[in-house]
Design brief:
about 60 residues, 2 strands, mainly alpha
């Protein structure tokens, strides 16, 4: 169950990163440079979580 939840969390991080880049808002209004950096970091972390969850799911099957 935790692996599937981790997969879902990865997708949520990716969506949050895209929203931060588009709206330049994350709790406060962000400068464009900060918004792009934070958005890219959130997307990268989402991809990392998805990759780790997929590897874990494949190893158990």
């Amino acid at each position: 169950m935790f692996k599937w939840l981790s997969l879902l969390a990865g997708f949520i991080y990716i969506v949050l990163g895209i929203v931060v880049i588009i709206y330049k808002f994350f709790v406060i209004v962000l400068e464009p440079t900060v918004a792009y950096a934070l958005g890219a970091l959130l997307i990268a972390y989402g991809v990392f979580r998805i990759a780790r969850a997929v590897m874990s799911i494949k190893n158990n099957d």
